[in-house]
UniProtKB/TrEMBL annotation:
Cytoplasm found in the keyword field: yes
Record-level Gene Ontology MF annotations: glutamine-fructose-6-phosphate transaminase (isomerizing) activity
Active-site annotation: 364 (for fru-6p isomerization activity)
Whole sequence portion shown: 249 to 617 of 617
Free-text function comment from the UniProt entry: Catalyzes the first step in hexosamine metabolism, converting fructose-6P into glucosamine-6P using glutamine as a nitrogen source.
Name assigned to this protein: Glutamine--fructose-6-phosphate aminotransferase [isomerizing]
Catalytic activity: D-fructose 6-phosphate + L-glutamine = D-glucosamine 6-phosphate + L-glutamate
Alphabetized UniProt keyword annotations: Aminotransferase, Cytoplasm, Glutamine amidotransferase, Repeat, Transferase
Domain SIS: 42-181, 214-359
Quaternary state and interactors: Homodimer.
Compartments, record wording: Cytoplasm
Organism: Branchiibius cervicis
Domain of life: Bacteria
Amino acid sequence: EKGGYATYMEKEIFDQPQAVADTLLGRSTPSGDLQLDDMRITEEQLAAVDRVTIVACGTAAYAGMVAKYAIEHWARIPVEVSLAHEFRYCDPIADEKTLVVSISQSGETMDTLMAVKHARDLGALTLSICNTHGSTIPRESDAVLYTHAGPEIAVASTKAFLGQITACYILGLYLAQLKGGSYAEDAKQVIAELQDVPSKIAAVLSDVGRVREVARFMADTRSVLFLGRHVGYPIAMEGALKLKELAYIHAEGFAAGELKHGPIALIEPGQPVFIVVPGPDTPHGLHGKVVSNIQEIRARGARTLVIAEEGDSSVDEFADEVFRVPHTSPMLQPLLTVLPLQVFALELSTAKGLDVDQPRNLAKSVTVE
Ligand code: F6R
């Protein structure tokens, strides 16, 4: 069942080209129009949506953070991401023009389910992004967009995360198409570009030898920091979460711009820091800003582990290690940049002799509040 891999986690990491390809499959009609699954929301209702609230926990919430950037950019609808267990208790504002999107691999997470029920009570439209057919959350929602990542056995989420991000893109592009005009035109281009992503994921995964090597030498590490910006920010958070869960190492993800507002005080000689570098064509000069961050922490002795696009030589001077990902448009980068971080956590956990498939204290689906 592990398909020749030592653990489910490793298998699931290497299943990711398929997870993304399958989630994309059959979504677009020959004319390039997107379609969702079970739809009990009319196009008219969706077209009237003036606010999106995403509710999710853990890794799924990081997929939701990626979705915020994508949906706001492509469909120009304000998006808020709320941890599902906080949503009900912050007196949320939602009505029939609010689309509440829940993201859940299992479809059984109690916190997320309760948030969906609360949203429904407020009169909001509810849409579930879910990996498990017939589970509770999609049943309780007005519409469903299934991720086709296949069953995820390892407790910590990997391929379901990529499926979730992919589904979030589909939703964002769907909303953009509903808007029509130039929104719809732009969406078509992204849909075409998405088709190339699975082979890029496979390319990254075929070349992870150096990440593994670096991880194996870090089994004694006490703390690792992760920096990212724009869609790289949730990826930094996810990289940190994977390391906590799998290797029991203290890890923190930051928005790179936040560095000078505090976390830079943590940088001392030898401190390992992963930096997710936006592609050079990311708007607003963000690439250059993150390269400056690498320079700043390197000057203070940090050990810089950089994830950057192929051909981006601007990082070489300041990087102790560079892990490369193929070029893609900035919004789609998370599907590639998270891969070295997953492999790093897997390998470090293995080097420490831990059970990567079943980390201590965790359960695959959290069905209590
Ligand atoms: C992280 C992880 C958890 C889940 C979270 C939500 O590796 O597995 O953070 O992402 O518990 O679970 P679902 O997606 O089933 O609602």
